[in-house]
Specification:
α2 crosses α6. The two termini are about 15 Å apart. It is elongated and about 70 Å long. The chain is mostly helical. The protein has two domains: about 80 residues, no CATH class; about 70 residues, no CATH class. The longest helix is centred in the first third of the chain and has 23 residues. It contains ten helices and no strands.
């Protein structure tokens, strides 16, 4: 995950997806470790086979994974607080208009029904798309600009 978050030309919504995926993996790993399912931990599986089954510390390892997951949730709480904003930036064509802020709803409808803008989004991607939002969509332009400011304020360089 660390390598996926490094480098240039990353969109914050893609970074959010990476973090969300890792949090989900931690939850899965903890659950599976508690059940002594070591399919994602081949080294642990090898150790368990060499030791007696009762000697393998699955519960303790699951507790450690749980602590890591809790720390991870705490450290990335800002991402969860900005979830809808990040999803809007990630793919405005997939956002549910009804659950969006009222000041964006009309512009989102116009955007999602505009085939030329949809094609532009497909061509340039999320990182560049905000530059192509027309002046007739000032709220979406403001939202895109705020996302850039948010990234600079909250993501260490």
């Amino acid at each position: 995950m660390n390598l996926q978050l490094q480098g240039r030309d990353h969109v914050i919504s893609d970074m959010y997806s990476t973090v969300k995926a890792f949090k989900t993996k931690l939850t899965l790993w903890e659950t599976q470790m508690r059940k002594e399912n070591l399919s994602h931990f081949p080294s642990c599986q090898t150790m368990k086979e060499k030791l007696s089954t009762s000697a393998f510390p699955s519960a303790q390892l699951a507790d450690k994974i749980g602590m890591l997951a809790a720390d991870f949730r705490r450290r990335f709480a800002d991402f969860e607080a900005q979830k809808s904003r990040l999803e809007l930036l990630g793919n405005p064509f997939a956002v549910d208009v009804e659950s969006s802020p009222p000041n964006l709803q009309m512009e989102l409808i116009d955007l999602q029904c505009n085939d030329a803008l949809r094609a532009k989004y497909a061509a340039v991607g999320a990182a560049e798309f905000a530059r192509f939002l027309p002046d007739t969509m000032p709220q979406l332009r403001i939202q895109a600009a705020q996302n850039v400011v948010y990234v600079w304020q909250h993501i260490p360089v």
